[in-house]
Amino acid sequence: MVGAKSRNIAYLNGKVPSWVSVPTSVALPFGTFETVLSDKINKEVAQELNILMDKLNQGELGALNEIRNTVLNLTAPTCLVNDLKEKMQGSGMPWPGDEGEQRWEQAWTAIKKVWASKWNERAYLSTRKVKLDHANLSMSVLVQQVVSADYAFVIHTTNPSSGESSEIYAEVVKGLGETLVGAFPGRAMSFVCNKDNLDSPKVLGYPSKPIGLFIKKSIIFRSDSNGEDLEGYAGAGLYDSVPMDKEEEVVLDYTSDKLVTDCNFQKSILSSIARTGYEIEQLYGGSPQDIEGVVKDGKIYVVQTRPQM
């Protein structure tokens, strides 16, 4: 009923070592979008979408943008709002509506933007290229508390450059991971670490990314499509994950950053990241993993893992 991001987060909870945290999460399962669309309060939106889908099926790619905009007109049925509130509060997550109607509307808009990303041009055309039926793609939404990160990282538990399975390769940036996985200029800090010697990371490159993204305590709504799990289809990264609040862009100064200037701090953080990758790979029976996470006050948080492609 959910994609691999949600399943893997559920699997990691309680299994990772105590020094690794997993953010509190709930998920809107597959079929939620379709249920909301079929509700009588969204009758006009459903009719408009049917017309646009017909245009799209006839080859009018301009309909994709119209479809995305029309999805944003959906109204949240009361039962959905109540169910989501109950699940979030039951998990210990803050309920946006407690901060006012405007905050709930921000959250609801973020959910709709994730659903609408099914009709991104790149995502739609990629399914056609590999002859997948776009109509069969379903979108669940993984709702997570955002950790206001000092650093973000991506780990490959097999070195992707050499194919060496005994080496962990990772990249680290200041702030949120969007500057690492998105189309932001500059280099991340990169390093490798041998799995037999996790306390000796070797820095390959120092960071040059001019911008860092930072955010206050918030909630992010992550795309979790079944299209991201298909063998032979690189669906990861095609769909949108949307924070409830806008990130703040900060011009970075690496000359005062402890990760660059303090050798002991650098070794501690990089070793912890490498050890996190090793531990999670072991949980998956030694299967190579692609792991995303953040560091806050020296603490490691893992926000997702998936098989390394």
Can you characterise this structure?
- By secondary structure, this protein is an alpha+beta fold.
- The chain is 35% helix and 24% strand.
- It has ten helices and 13 strands.
- The chain has helices at 4-12, 32-38, 43-57, 63-71, 78-90, 101-116, 121-129, 178-181, 258-261, 263-283; strands at 20-21, 25-28, 139-146, 151-156, 167-174, 189-194, 202-205, 211-214, 218-225, 242-243, 248-251, 289-296, 299-307.
- α3 (43-57) runs antiparallel to α4 (63-71).
- The two termini are 23 Å apart.
SSE ordering: HEEHHHHHHEEEHEEEEEEHHEE
What structural category arises from helix and sheet content?
alpha+beta
| Residue-averaged pLDDT | 93
Q: N-to-C terminal Cα separation, in Å?
A: 23 Å
User: How would you characterize the largest beta sheet?
Assistant: 7 strands, mixed
Major beta sheet, strand line-up: 1-13-12-4-5-6-7
Number-wise, the strands total: 13
Q: What's the assembly state of these chains?
A: single chain
- Beta strand %: 15-25%
Query: What value does the Rg take, in angstroms?
Result: 20 Å
Principal-axis shape: globular
Number of separate helices: 10
Uncertain segments are: none
Helix content: 25-40%
